[in-house]
Amino acid sequence: MELGFSEEQDQLREAVRKFMEAKSPSTEVRRLMETPEGYDPAVWKQMSDELGLSSLHIPEEYGGQGFTFVELGIVLEEMGRVLLCAPYFSTVCLAANTILDVATPSECAELLPGIASGETVATVAFTEPNGKWDAEGITMEATQSSDSWVLNGAKMFVLDGHVADRIVVVGREVGTSGPAGICFFVVEGDAPGLTRQLLPTMDLTRKQAHLEFANVPARRLGGDGADWSTFVKTLDQVAVCLANEMVGGAQRVLEMTVDYAKVRVQFGRPIGSFQAVKHKCADMLVEVELAKSAAYYAAWVAAEDNNDLPVSASMAKAYCSDAYFHAAAENIQIHGGIGFTWEHDAHLYFKRAKSSELLFGDATYHRA
């Protein structure tokens, strides 16, 4: 087993980091998080056209480049470093993987090229007001009428749901119960009967929406062969993606903390020279390095598509959640009073760490 990144993967990281640092400085993050859309369409187009990031892990037969979750993890880690404001996670990680897992080859050929080219912003709507992450939490009613379907219900915390051109909806066929009754649908963003409302959230760098469905026309995706057991694999893959993104944020927070400890002077010496601060920084370093190991291993398992995916995905999501949140909290404490101010970037990483901790199940959920 190769335990390091290849030269090509290191080059990918270097190119993505250079692009992200140029296009997503703190000032731009703060500007975009205050806009209703939450991203810059011009930068989104550059990400697709110049770097090909939206097509990275989509198979070549569907307009992609055919790379693996390892390369996708590298890209997400660099995005997490700069708190990129873009619908990348919802479109490429969540929607594209759901389609790859549940759709038929002909449906993939129809839906994925638009995502690969960057023309389609997509997402998946599966969490409902009850806040559950399992099959029993899905109550969205799907009713068949001749050869068409209509959806009724509500979806909460839909990533970029307010701007998505296409939404994959997880629903339940009327009259069914249990995981076998779960089915998947494609809904256009401008479908009649669909109401979309941007949610006020703690982490403004990642937009979420509330969607109401009132007899919304939908197309069945994947047929009878796609049920909740199919979607479980997607959720594991998404957990791996999020773990790698959190690693990037945790590494940046560690760097911020150490840099400040070197220059902040108290009692005539840098605070980094005090034993208590040294211990905090050392603990953060160990946690971040362990989080990297968990996330990188999970990405390799996802790329190999072997039976360790459920365990490695949950392990990575749980550990990276704890490591990122702890590092972000320690960063604020070591910065002292300035770390609590709106002007400092520490609070942006703290809020992203907290929202990512809860997204797709917290550490307690994944340990169980």
Description:
It is a single chain. Helices cover 51% and strands 16% of the residues. The longest helix has 36 residues, at 228-263. The strands form two sheets. Strands 2-3-7-5-4 form a five-stranded mixed β-barrel. Helix 8 (275-304) packs antiparallel against helix 9. With 368 residues, it is of the alpha+beta class.
Rg, rounded, reads: 21 Å
Structural class: alpha+beta
Binned, the helix content reads 40-55%
Biggest sheet, spatial arrangement of strands = 2-3-7-5-4
Unreliable segments of 5+ consecutive residues: none
Residue fraction in strands: 15-25%
Shape: globular
N→C terminal distance: 29 Å
Number of helices: 11
The H/E string reads HHHHHHEEEEEEEHEEHHHH
What's the total count of β strands?
9
Overall mean confidence score, pLDDT: 93
Major sheet: size, sense and barrel closure?
5 strands, mixed, barrel
Give a topology summary.
Elements: H1 7-23, H2 26-33, H3 41-49, H4 69-82, H5 88-102, H6 105-117, E1 122-125, E2 141-145, E3 148-159, E4 166-173, E5 182-188, E6 194-198, E7 208-221, H7 228-263, E8 265-266, E9 269-270, H8 275-304, H9 309-335, H10 346-358, H11 363-367
Parallel strand pairs: 1-4, 2-4
Antiparallel strand pairs: 2-3, 3-7, 4-5, 5-7, 6-7, 8-9
Helix pairs in contact: 1-4, 4-7, 4-8, 5-6, 5-7, 7-8, 7-9, 7-10, 8-9, 9-10
